From TrEMBL:
InterPro entries: Methyltransf_16 (IPR019410), SAM-dependent_MTases_sf (IPR029063). One of its GO terms (biological process) is methylation. The lineage of its organism: Eukaryota, Metazoa, Chordata, Craniata, Vertebrata. It comes from the Eukaryota. Keywords: Methyltransferase, S-adenosyl-L-methionine, Transferase. The gene is Mettl21e. GO terms for molecular function: methyltransferase activity. This is MT21E methyltransferase. Coiled coil: none annotated. The keyword Ribosomal protein does not apply.
Length: 223
């Protein structure tokens, strides 16, 4: 079953028929052909398999995870594929990443959503752990969903990443997080994450070493 679903997920990707002056990959999600411009010299400007796993989940679970008119933020949006798919599914999306990635992110988002979405997504700078209250004040920012794909890897900002999840997450916010397991240090992040959030694995793909999680804040008021 794992291999069958993985084959279907990866089958959503296609490549240009001819070599072009810009490196791009194509994807089929939410009833649209999505073209993503990439840059091979930067981790954040490449589409990683975790993003495809999350996009596939959003599309195939659109009834139980209805994004229409929901307020969504993607952290570490990279090329913007997840943000684009969430937008095509009806969400109001804020796609965020480091300043040096915003140009390519904005290009991809605009190219694939203009006049196709109920809500035009916005692109905004977010450096994990920096100026969070200034740029995303808790009093006025409320997100129904926080989305993240492959944000945990070998980098020195895992503390800042956890701080960012904590700052953006309200009691009723749902986190959807696709993670590829690599090294023990990154894997330990899951244990630290569970100190703040109730974590549920909703999909697991051993052949990709990727798990998809749903999380909510611990200690929230329950109906």
């Amino acid at each position: 079953e794992d291999e069958q679903i993985v084959a279907e997920i990866m089958g959503r990707r296609f490549f240009p028929d001819v070599i072009t002056h810009k490196t791009w990959e194509g994807f089929h999600f939410a009833g649209h052909e999505i073209r993503i411009t990439e840059a091979t010299d930067c981790y954040g400007a490449v589409v990683w398999p975790s993003a495809l796993v999350l996009c596939y989940f959003l599309e195939t679970n659109s009834k139980q995870c209805n994004l229409v008119d929901k307020n969504v933020i993607e952290i570490g949006a990279g090329t913007g594929l997840v943000s684009i798919v969430a937008s095509l599914l009806g969400a109001f999306v804020t796609a965020t990443d480091l300043p040096e990635l915003l140009g390519n992110l904005q290009h991809n988002v605009l190219q694939n959503t203009k006049q196709k979405c109920k809500h035009q997504p916005c692109v905004k700078e977010l450096s994990w752990g920096i100026d969070l209250e200034k740029n995303f004040p808790k009093s006025s920012c409320h997100f129904d969903y926080i989305m993240a794909a492959d944000v945990v890897y070998y980098h020195p900002f895992l503390d800042e990443l956890l701080l960012t999840f904590d700052h953006l997450c309200k009691n009723d916010t749902v986190i959807l997080w696709a993670m590829k397991f690599r090294l023990e240090k990154e894997n330990q992040f899951v244990d630290r994450f569970q100190m703040l959030f109730d974590l549920e694995m909703i999909s697991n793909f051993p052949s990709l070493n990727i798990a998809l999680y749903k999380a909510m804040r611990k200690g929230r008021m329950k109906a």
